[in-house]
Amino acid sequence: MNLTATGLYDPPPARKARRPRQQPESKSVAVPLKQTMRIGAYVLRQHLSGAKRYPLVLMMEPLFRCNLTCAGCGKIDYPDDVLNARLSVDDALASIDECPAPVVVMAGGEPLLHREIDRIVRGALARGKFVYLCTNALLLEKKLDQFEPNPAFTWTVHLDGNREDHDHAVSRDGTFDQAVSAIKAARARGFRVNINCTLFNNADPARMAEFFDFAHSIGVEGITLSPGYAYERAPDGQHFLTRRTTKDLFRSLFRLGKGRGWKFTQSSLFLNFLAGNETYACTPWGNPTRNVFGWQRPCYLLGEGYARTYKELMDETDWESYGTGKYEKCADCMVHSGYEPTAVTDTLNHPLKAAWVALFGPRTEGPMAPDLPLDGQRPAVDRYAEVLEEGRSLLKTDGN
């Protein structure tokens, strides 16, 4: 019975042919049940305790050096003295002890260039963390012997599409084939493997759909989706997405994905947000970032200063100055590092909505949720030189 219908007690109208019932989609998130339950319990404890701000994922960048120069990356534009810096094992593990986030994502740069990354991974696992090690996979087969399969450890391989699309995105031929070979080798040894896929405005939904099918066929357990963030200092600044083009792209992609059983690593409501069905504000403290300079303010994507400690980051950052509608640099951002924590909170507050989207997938037709207004945002400020000098001073002080 439709309790919102008018004329509830009127005689029933003539029976019409029923529309086919919407069938559930295979939208299961590629995260082990134990991990889902532990993170869910952690989030619930934070809410019940009245915590205003808490971390969900610790983003750790043990170095900025990389062995690729991807066109859309703004993470590696540093002088050699910074690129040669490394986060020590002791400092990395101390940072994990500082930050109570249940998940640690190790990114970069290319983490496998760090000679002691295996020790950092083992230390994080010994502390009961769920660890995701990001890599472009160029060194993965060579380094596999340094790691052991663990239900709490996942390789996250950077793959931005099929052979042509990925090799173009990373500006080097042959990287797709190397990554695929490494994925197969890691799966053969019993490792969990996901892929991280960043989409730009030249992404073709049909080609991406075929690529997702292929990825699952070679053993990839989950796909992390991200619209490319408009880094100020990325080599290619012409292919970043606006909010509207992001929503249109992901609606097209999810429409093609119905019935194909793709497994995404993100929450159902974050995917719903990408499809334009949610109005979310950013939660920048949800994924605090520790790199060779210190704790980056305000978020993983935007470096506008550093704190020496996690507590200083959380207590002294001017959080109200950042986010969509507040700062021009944040205007088009819809990346999971800022919005997944928001979606997780919404999931806790509206579990039935989250379950419905998880079962049937994001809505791909009809009106979109309104965007946050941008008329009050402060203009972007180029702080690269200033922030670089601040970071360098911390490098000298801390001896990294």
Structure description:
The protein has 14 helices and nine strands. The longest helix is centred in the first third of the chain and has 16 residues, at 33-48. It has a nine-stranded mixed β-sheet, sandwiched between helices. The chain starts with 32 loop residues before the first helix and ends with a helix. Helix 5 links the parallel strand 3 (130-135) and strand 4. 37% of the residues lie in helices and 12% in strands. The protein is globular. With 400 residues, it is α/β, with parallel strands linked by helices. The chain has a single domain (33-398), classed as Aldolase class I (TIM Barrel).
Average pLDDT for all residues: 89
When the domains are counted, the total is: 1
Q: Report, as a whole number of angstroms, the end-to-end distance.
A: 66 Å
| Lateral arrangement of strands in the main beta sheet | 6-5-4-3-2-1-7-8-9
By helix and strand content, what is the structural category?
alpha/beta
Radius of gyration: 22 Å
Classify the helix fraction into a percent range: 25-40%
Counted by DSSP, the helix tally is 14
Examine the coordinates and then state which fold CATH places here, giving the name of the CATH topology.
TIM Barrel
CATH architecture: Alpha-Beta Barrel
Keywords: Iron, Iron-sulfur, Metal-binding, S-adenosyl-L-methionine
InterPro entries: Aldolase_TIM, DUF3463, Hopanoid_synth-assoc_rSAM_HpnH, Radical_SAM_PqqE_MftC-like, rSAM, rSAM_sf
Cofactor: [4Fe-4S] cluster
Organism: Magnetospirillum fulvum MGU-K5
